[in-house]
Structure formats: structure tokens, C-alpha cells
Amino acid sequence: MNFPASPRVLSRRWAAAASVAMSFALNACGTPDRVPYTAQDLDGAGPVSAPSARFWADSPTAVQARAFSEVAPGADGRIDILALSGGGPDGAFGAGLLSGWTKTGERPVPEIVTGVSIGAVIAPIAFLGPRYDHMLAALSKAEADGFKLAVSPVSLAGVSGVFSARKVEAFVSQVVTEEVVEDIAAAHRDGRRLYVATANIDAQRMAIWDLGAIAASGSGNPREAIVEIIVAATSIPAAFPAQPIRTSSNGKELIELHVDGGTIAQIWIPDPVIVRNATGRSGSVWAVMNISLEPEFKLSSGRAADLSKQAIGSVFKSAAYSELTKAQARSAQAGYRFNLAYIRQGWPEAENVLSFDPAHMERVFEYAFEKTTSKQVWTRTIPPAYTSPLP
Fold it and tell me: Average pLDDT of 10-22?
């Protein structure tokens, strides 16, 4: 398979990356019969091939500290954290940023990488570093080995499947190759960590999956498990079916239902204080928000669709603001440098999370690439619009 890697090609093809994951969700063939289980069963559950490779975002400090305790510092003696948010088609922003960051020659090798929603699709590529930038092109091209994809916002919003499950599975298998899984496993063994978030519908909690531990487990089918988790991470509730994930708890097999982790939080940033206490090292936090954070004035028509869009946008922005301000404060407490990139006012932004229009995504990608290479994308300031005034 040939993987062209020009920035323009990357952006043109990013629509397919998100579309593949989303359409895979649309083609899910129903939820299998589930044996009832309890919250206590769920607390002890983990991936079948690697039972300890999952914890909850709200797990006690001691549990999270154990997860981070084996993270090894980089050559500079520090631990960098890269967190990628949700944002649907505006995931092209994160893709353009990463490509532009490579171009500057300043892109770090983060010891911890996390992804939520579309960020979960980007995260493995970001984790594997610039040498895998060509994989972004492959994901976005959707023409690999004769597989052709035609996408429109209307078709993506449909109730029935857009593509056959066989073709989608074949395409995902071309991307999530054994080589990719082996490289993720090798990085994990070197002390780096790759996490993807989903939302467990039964528990109403965010699950954090250690993809490196799954890749390195040596049992079961790690590649299949990783694809299953990433597909669940992109399954927007109501628009797409919840995805079944098989786990094991004290010898009992569970079938859990998971959806897009963005239903709980748009981004998951490991608590820098916990990371520092577990590793004895500080570093930098790089938060990539594939959404805008500033309120946008728009005179509403009063139609349900417009009201829904504005309301959901407000929820996402205010929730993201809360997550980021907490992460910024904890970073300062832990001696971490906090860095933020987000879609600014006046920058290209999708109409809605299902508008996977290739032309728009190319524009977003190229804009992010240009802003990154010209050193205009990173800031340490969170927009203050959602700050409550002091009494």
C-alpha cells in the first residue's frame, strides 16, 4: 500500500478517517444478548486479553497512580502529556496541527497520549510519532487497495448503514496493521502510554483504556480489541448505536455498552499532580481542542435544529472550559507547563459534528497546518468567557 504524505493530501483525506469509524458504528449488527451484571462486577472488569488495562477517569488517586507509576521519562528527563479532544470533522484541526508541528522540527515525543472521540482516532498516530504521519494520509484517502468511499453529511446522518461492514472492517484492518500494534506495544514496553476514552452507558462513567497494555498483552487478538475500542470511542449517542465491548471480571465475561467519551468530557487530561507523584517527574501538558472555546453569537431562528446546535455547543464549550481550567491549575501545582491549542474565532469550523465535508476538512487542516508552522497555534491562556464573575 502506498501512503502519500503531503499536507494537502492529508487534509483532503481526513474526512474518511472519521467517516470510517462512524460508519462502522452505523453498520453494527445489533447488540448481542447480555448476561446481567452489577456495578461491583464492572468495577473489577477489564479487557479480556489484558484485565488490568482499564480504569475509570474518576478512579481513586491510588488506582490512577498505579497506572502511571511505570511511565518512563523521556531523554530530557521529563514527562510530556498530549491530550486530543473530540470535535467530529474538526478533528482535521488536530491532524493539521500535528503535521505542522512535525514541519517545525519542534514536535516532542510525549510520554502519555490520550484521545476522546475523534481524538481517539488521531491518538495512536500521534503516539507513534512523525514517522507515522504518512498513516494520517492513508486514513484520510479512503482509496487504499481499491476501497473507495463517498461521503456526504446527509448519508452520514442516515439511519441505515452507509457502507458494508465487510468493506469497513477491511479498510480498518489495513490501517490498524500488525506492525502498528507491534510498534504501540514496543513503545508501551519502553514506558510510554496510550489511552483512549469511552463512556460506559450502564455506569455513566468514562472508561480509560490502555491501548499499549492491550497491544503488549500477547494474548487474544490485540488488533481486534484496539479497533473495537476506537470504534466505540467515536459512536455519538442517538446518532450511532452503542458498541458492545467484551470484558472479563473475576472469570465472568461481561458485554458492556460504550459510546463516545465526549458525552462525559470533551478531553481527558491525566491529573499532572498524580502523574508527578507517581513518577517523580514534571513536564508539559499539550491540550489540543478540536473545537472552539469562545461563545459565538448567532441570532437563532427558533427552529429545533438551530436551538439544539446552539445548546449543544454551549454545553461542550462550558464543559471544556471547566476541564481545561482544572488541568491548568493542577499543572501549575505539579510544576507542569500548560499549553493549549483550539479553534479560534474566525478560523474554519464545521456546522455540526456530522458534517464530514472533505472540502471543509481540507480547509481546516491547512489552516491548522499554517498556524502551527507560523507559531500561532499554541497559547497558555484559556478564553475567559465562561468564567463566573466574582460577587
Answer: 42
